[in-house]
Amino acid sequence: MNLIMFIIALTALISLILAIIAFWLPSLKPDNEKLSPFECGFDPLGNARLPFSIRFFLVAILFLLFDLEIALLLPLPWADQLNNPTLTILWTTIIILLTLIGLIYEWLQGGLEWAE
């Protein structure tokens, strides 16, 4: 019980110290850019409905696709301890080839060209 109370007190102390540092560490004199309502580079007084290019969304979807591929391939180093590691290597190769074929198709169709 004494160890649990020590861990709780230590956790509370570290959290309090980090909160105090996070409160006092930032600059107290922000510049004009930080005081503006938007820091993203858009004019806050202009039109709020600026059109986005569909290519932006295509690149975002491709990023998510390859990110998902990485997540699927993360357990691969442990595949050699399975009963049949060649089957796992086969499925991995199929996943990589499918995404590679999709990337080549998008590249040839001009879907990765940012400038129109």
TrEMBL record:
InterPro entries per record: NADH_UbQ/plastoQ_OxRdtase_su3, NDAH_ubi_oxred_su3_sf
Gene3D superfamilies: NADH:ubiquinone/plastoquinone oxidoreductase, chain 3 (1.20.58.1610)
Subcellular locations according to the entry: Mitochondrion membrane
Annotated EC: 7.1.1.2
Pfam families noted in UniProt: Oxidored_q4
GO molecular function: NADH dehydrogenase (ubiquinone) activity
Signal peptide boundaries: none
GO cellular component: mitochondrial membrane; NADH dehydrogenase complex
Keywords: Electron transport, Membrane, Mitochondrion, NAD, Respiratory chain, Translocase, Transmembrane, Transmembrane helix, Transport, Ubiquinone
Sequence intervals crossing the membrane: 6-25, 56-76, 88-108
Membrane-topology annotation of the record: Multi-pass membrane protein
Enzymatic reactions: a ubiquinone + NADH + 5 H(+)(in) = a ubiquinol + NAD(+) + 4 H(+)(out)
Sequence similarity: Belongs to the complex I subunit 3 family.
Primary role: Core subunit of the mitochondrial membrane respiratory chain NADH dehydrogenase (Complex I) which catalyzes electron transfer from NADH through the respiratory chain, using ubiquinone as an electron acceptor. Essential for the catalytic activity of complex I.
Name assigned to this protein: NADH-ubiquinone oxidoreductase chain 3
Organism: Narcine bancroftii
